[in-house]
Specification:
The complex is a heterodimer of chains A (203) and B (296).
Chain A (H helix, E strand, L loop, with lengths): L1 H12 L2 H35 L30 H4 L15 H4 L23 E2 L5 E2 L4 H8 L1 H8 L6 E3 L5 E3 L2 H4 L24
Antiparallel strand pairs in A: 1-2, 3-4
Helix pairs in contact in A: 5-6
Chain B lengths: L6 H19 L3 H8 L8 H19 L4 E3 L9 E6 L8 H9 L12 E6 L23 E6 L8 H5 L5 E3 L5 E3 L9 H5 L5 E3 L14 E3 L11 E3 L4 H4 L6 H5 L5 E5 L6 H8 L1 E3 L11 E5 L2
Parallel strand pairs in B: 1-8, 2-12
Antiparallel strand pairs in B: 2-10, 3-4, 5-6, 7-9, 11-12
Classes of the chains: A mainly alpha (203), B alpha+beta (296).
InterPro entries (chain B): 4Fe4S_Fe-S-bd, 4Fe4S_Fe_S_CS, ET_IronSulfur_Cluster-Binding, TAT_signal
Keywords (chain B): 4Fe-4S, Iron, Iron-sulfur, Metal-binding
GO molecular function (chain B): 4 iron, 4 sulfur cluster binding; metal ion binding
């Protein structure tokens, strides 16, 4: 670090002509590194998309970080590939004439988002991060955390969301989708339990 | 016949009368034992064990079920704290009834350890204008927020200092408890509590047999009797075993948080250090260990 600083200092003291080659060299190296990183990312993303079989769903090394069990999906709907493997994948954003159970209630930034922002086009049995990384349904909190980063942070430390079990031992963390419908995440109003009876001295 | 009216003979006759009354009425000696029992805090380990065995037998006879009565003491290095997210609570009252069931509260006359107060957002926290009997079709109601109140487990509890017989005290883990056998029902503690968190058994409490929770703690949810005061104990029977209180586990919006205030890694400590936190009636210097916070 010091050496570089000294070098810059020297260059600044020196003439214009003397500074040029060093600067060019530095810029060249930076450009090369950026190009390499971009290429690497693209290669990686492509690899995720090539995975088709559910058995190969990418799970992060930290999958065991939270002992969570995904809530049951609508009966008869999973695996999605059962139907979708026979359908031609269509990435065009459009009004669906199928999946009415979702389209009728869908209210999750409806203006800007649709199915394939969270579900993968090719591998129907997994979710998909914006990076292209595939994700199992048991790790859906990572998908939610892409946009709701602050909530994910609070959830990790136990402030947002619900935990059951042991306060000083094994906890069961509920996933975002245990409480929020991912297609319409706003909480539905609830019927309250009965109010307390008016207090009486004799009863 | 000359009547003997000396003080000595009067006392002698009284003693005889009392003795024969007990013998004749076939008075339950167990009840007498309970009546003469010492304050819980002065009992030896052996005496506690004996009392617990006899209680389990008594409950078995009375309710036809096997009870587990615990007298598990506090663990060192633990100070229980509670936090409730005011920005999440929707006023559904699920906590109220989970608490009733877990802690064997009387269904009639009705006792609720948790009161959920409905307040107007425009007015803020205003007890004088709050409503505990709200009953709309659906909650939350527009323009309102909800503030559940239960025992605040004060570090400086006034209820314990006013008790004339020391039947209520703060445990080393911070839970304020009542020895129901020692309580004389004077209700001074209820007058002293600024949160209305203590409740009196005006009649013999009634709990449906099939709804009786048989996992009880001596200082917590064991069946109470007529004429004693009771209160929230953070579910002492659960938390001393490491479990979350019943209200925490039932809350459908995850507004209730619980943990050890002495553990810097606990979720309760994170909330205290990172969120906007308040306590009720701070000006009274009761120093509650029950915190309200805004999670958003």
């Amino acid at each position: 670090m010091n050496r570089t600083d000294n070098h810059i200092l020297k260059c600044r003291c020196g003439s214009q002509r003397k500074r040029m080659p060093a600067e060019l060299l530095r810029s060249g190296i930076v450009l090369l590194i950026v190009a390499l990183v971009i290429t690497a990312c693209h290669v990686k993303e492509k690899r995720y998309n090539e995975q088709v079989l559910p058995a190969e769903i990418m799970t992060s090394e930290q999958a065991e970080e939270f002992a969570v069990e995904a809530p049951p999906l609508t009966e008869g709907i999973f695996p999605c590939s059962e139907c979708h493997s026979e359908l031609e994948p269509n990435p065009t954003r459009r009004e669906l004439d199928w999946h009415e159970e979702v389209t009728s209630i869908f209210d999750h930034d409806k203006e800007n988002r649709w199915c394939l922002d969270c579900h993968d086009l090719i591998n129907r049995d997994s979710l998909r991060l914006a990076s292209g990384k595939l994700l199992g349904f048991d790790e859906s909190y990572k998908l939610c955390g892409q946009c709701h980063g602050e909530k994910l942070r609070d959830w990790r430390v136990g402030v947002h969301g619900k935990r059951i079990g042991q306060w000083n031992g094994q906890k069961h963390y509920l996933l975002c989708v245990h409480c929020h419908n991912p297609h319409a995440p706003k909480f539905e109003p609830m019927t309250p339990e009965p109010p307390p009876l008016p207090q009486k001295m004799s009863n | 016949m000359k009547e003997d009216k000396s003080r000595r003979s009067f006392l002698k006759n009284m003693a005889l009368a009392a003795g024969s009354a007990i013998a004749l009425s076939g008075c339950d000696m167990k009840a007498l034992d309970h009546f003469l029992q010492k304050n819980f805090r002065t009992l030896s380990k052996a005496e506690v064990d004996e009392i617990i065995t006899s209680l389990q037998l008594e409950y078995k006879n009375k309710y036809g079920k096997d009870f587990t009565v615990s007298a598990k003491p506090a663990t060192d290095g633990i100070l229980f704290g509670y936090a409730l997210d005011l920005s999440r609570c929707i006023g559904c009252r699920k906590c109220v009834y989970a608490c009733v069931e877990e802690n064997n509260q009387s269904r009639g006359p009705q006792i609720h350890w948790i009161q959920v107060l409905q307040m107007e957002k425009e007015k803020g926290i205003d007890f004088a204008d709050s409503d505990v009997h709200y009953n709309p079709e659906k909650v939350p109601e527009e323009g309102h927020f909800y503030l559940p109140v239960q025992c605040q487990q004060c570090r400086n509890p006034q209820c314990t200092t006013v008790c004339p017989v020391k039947a209520t005290w703060q445990e080393p883990d911070g839970i304020v408890v009542v020895d129901y056998n020692w309580c004389i029902g004077c209700r001074y503690c209820m007058a002293a509590c600024p949160y209305g968190a203590r409740h009196f058994n005006w009649a013999e409490p009634s709990v449906p047999e099939d709804e009786m929770n048989t996992n009880v703690h001596y200082l917590g949810n064991r069946p109470r009797m007529k004429g004693v005061v009771e209160k929230c104990t953070f579910c002492i029977q659960r938390v001393r075993e490491g479990r979350y209180p019943a209200c925490v586990e039932v809350c459908p919006v995850g507004a209730r948080k619980f943990g050890n205030l002495l553990d810097p890694e606990s979720e309760i400590r994170y909330i205290l250090e990172n969120k906007r936190v308040l306590v009720l009636k701070q000006e009274l210097n009761t120093q509650p260990k029950f915190y309200y916070f805004f999670g958003v």
